[in-house]
Amino acid sequence: MTTTTFPKSFLWGGAIAANQAEGGYREGGKGLTNVDLLPRGEERFSYMKGNIPHLELQDDLYYPSHEAIDFYHRYKEDIKLFAEMGFKCLRVSVSWARIFPNGNDAEPNEEGLTFYENLFAELKANGIEPVVTIAHFDVPVHLIETFGSWKGRELVGFYETYARTLFNRFKGTVKYWMTFNEINMLFHLPFLGAGIVFKEGENRDQVLYQAAHHQLVASALAVKALHEIDPEAQIGCMLAAGVTYPYSCNPEDVWAGIERDRESYFFIDVQSRGAYPGYAKRFFREQEWDLHMEEGDEDILKAHTVDYIGFSYYSSRTISRDPEILGKMTAGNVFPSVKNPHLRTSEWGWTIDPKGIRITANQLYDRYQKPLFVVENGLGAIDEPGADGEINDAYRIDYLSAHLRELNEAIKDGVQLLGYTCWGPIDIVSASSGEMKKRYGYIHVDKDNEGNGTLNRSKKASFDWYKQVIETNGAALENETVKS
Asked: Which residues contact 468 (CB under 8 A, 6 or more apart)?
């Protein structure tokens, strides 16, 4: 990199989620959500896949979301640290069950609305724009029990009411909204992503595509509502992204990569282009599925497309049709991937591929020609304090610096990029594992996997590094030498 090209309006910041940071899981009138039922330990992954045996809390299990890092009570302290780093924005999510404890209550919970009103006011007072996700792996348990979560068409209306409630309350305060976090996670971790519980004998794929349709219609109705209520604000979709490389130049491998990417692009094709793509229609025909659509659904999707595309990027993926190659899969990643011999992996088996974020950004911009927003990117690692108690997380700086340099190149390529919010600027509970030792933050939180600790906050070496990056609008990256 020779010259920083980040625009002056670039939104530097960080991203957290209500269920991984807030805690206070039954305070302020909040109802129970799907993530509140996810324990840490061996059962967690099976639960996230939709194989949950019950919708009740168990006395012998530890649920990390219940306290998380207590952002619910400590947000002012944390925002002060974010402001010290120079954040221009903070991506947060609203907990549906804080606003409507059952998901379909006749009236919203005023105490929940007041909490977010105070949170957004504190951000604004510190010069930080709130970037708000309406549904970030968050479904009230009552809606799961009563309607089967997003299996049920009823959730479209409940979600629209929830979204309109937020838009009316925070008109003029929130300029950037997103409808669903990593909407494609529905296909990979159905209970975590959308509160889906499978019954014996159900066709899982058909269930998931029907649920996806309901979410896509709900997303379009949220776009419609925001454009009516607060036309100055913008609303986007959000994808768990990462380019899929063919393992070889064998055309079969190349086609496998295209098909794998389409599993995710399917959602954004509808949200950004306004219609189901031809490859999806072919898939439904060949499966002989009757995907239920109500009259007017296609018109709603066509008329109300998103303003921008948010995406997370942690790693690229690799695919092959060769059974022998397929035996060499990486460990620890939600998205199956063949081990790429040209790349290193993190402690959790995630491929480290800075060039991949530039490739992914170019592919998304070429495909949709809408502004992009990198709303998650980061390195989960075990941080070991030194003898002086300080955490010198040079490996995190190396990872982030390499990715930001590639984003700078993407901007040079012509990609329109609104901002960058690194994942977990403060240590939070891992969504996938429920652990605290898988840390992403510039700020250390004193808490372990069992929930022990003072919850005290302290700065890591990466804190001052990111502060300098923001102060110079990326120019500080020019003189860095990175290993990634």
From this structure: 476
Nearest to 92 by CA among 34, 3, 170: 170
Q: Does residue 286 have an active-site annotation?
A: no
pLDDT at position 315 over 70:
yes
pLDDT digits (tens, 9 = 90+) for 233-289: 999 999 999 999 999 999 999 999 999 999 999 999 999 999 999 999 999 999 998
Catalytically annotated residue among 376, 406, 409, 435: 376
Could you tell me whether strands 351-352 and 344-345 are parallel, antiparallel, or unpaired per DSSP bridges? antiparallel
Backbone angles phi, psi at 443, to 5 degrees: -120, 125
| pLDDT recorded at residue 325 | 86
Q: What is the 8-class DSSP label of residue 206? A: H
The span from the CA of 195 to the CA of 418, in Å, is: 31
* Block residue for tokens 């957290």: 16
**Which structural domains are found in the chain, ordered by start?**
11-479 (3.20.20.80)
CA distance 314 to 459: 23
Nearest Cα neighbor of 378 from 393, 359, 361 is: 393
- Token output for 318: 């690799």
How many alpha carbons lie under 13 Å from residue 122 in its C-beta half-sphere?
21
CA dist., res. 218 & res. 159, Å (int): 7
